[in-house]
Amino acid sequence: MNQVDYIIVGGGFAGFFLAHQLKKSNASFVIFNGSQISGSHISAGVCNPVILKRFSTFWKSKVQMDYLDTIFSEIETYTRKNYLIKEPVARIFHDQAEKVQWLRNSDKDDLKPFLSQDFVTLESVENPLESGIVSGSCRIDVEGFFNDMRTYFESQGHIINDNFDYDSIDLSNSVYKNFTFKNIIFCEGIHVNQNPFFSTLPVVPNKGHCLEVEINQEIDPFIIKKKHFLFSLSKNRFYYGGTYGRLDNSEEIDPEFVEELENGLKAFYKNQYEIVKVKTAFRATVDDRRPILGTHPEYDNLKIFNGLGARGVLNGSYFSNVMCDYLQHKTELDPEIDVKRFY
């Protein structure tokens, strides 16, 4: 029988960021990394402190942004790569009223560090009203992050490449198959809806689509945003996305969302491009826009870390540290993120 402190269920941002924190704390753990593709794996990985529809900020935006350098520098010590790409968001203005609103909001104390008052004209796309730069915004190399984290933790014996079987848990003895554990932490995104212990939680699947496109032209070195994000992945390959949809729970690609993406790209990029891939997956969202952390109301050895929503990198990195402190040091959780708010 193998003895571990923690079993992590899920290999998205929540699971791997938490694995990093537990490694840092010298805890023993395994990660059940099943075959499911989550919203984390196809996400843009954009880290942006500003809501770009209203030019406003959100709860804990600054502390989350500030923590990015810390956690990715820590991860770099064992993967030998820093996945942060310091490429700011350039928001194309739709009309003059948006420029006025941007300037007005840029004088507010919470937005002054982020909304640059120096507008730019992008050369590669149409932006007749210029574009606003979100200072400090960035993105991560999502594919590189997951590939390298899986490789590293597999080399250390932490990865179990198998789907988790809820029926095999012996809660009274804290045994799962050939493992004894102190806690199981479910970091499984929308698959929590099939979890018999946490299925009543209001985690809503939000289906996203994105494109990988080939563009044989230099594009301005920004995360360009009008309706969706456009940025470079590698030479001539670009990410464009993503969509939001709550009504379609199928895993199939929806042609209507692909059309939405194509129309969005054509609205500001007038040259030729080729769609190389279309991807779709589900984000785990919560209506109150707060992640879910904490302990099952009946079973003390079952924990949850879920509901990262569309800000998977920001929420996952920052709140993984909160979750680790809760697990390792019994620190109290903020009621706004505690799973107790649903019981």
Automatic annotation (TrEMBL):
<dbReference type="Pfam" id="PF01266">
    <property type="entry name" value="DAO"/>
</dbReference>
<feature type="domain" description="FAD dependent oxidoreductase">
    <location>
        <begin position="5"/>
        <end position="318"/>
    </location>
</feature>
<dbReference type="InterPro" id="IPR006076">
    <property type="entry name" value="FAD-dep_OxRdtase"/>
</dbReference>
<dbReference type="GO" id="GO:0005737">
    <property type="term" value="C:cytoplasm"/>
</dbReference>
<dbReference type="InterPro" id="IPR036188">
    <property type="entry name" value="FAD/NAD-bd_sf"/>
</dbReference>
<protein>
    <submittedName>
        <fullName>Glycine/D-amino acid oxidase-like deaminating enzyme</fullName>
    </submittedName>
</protein>
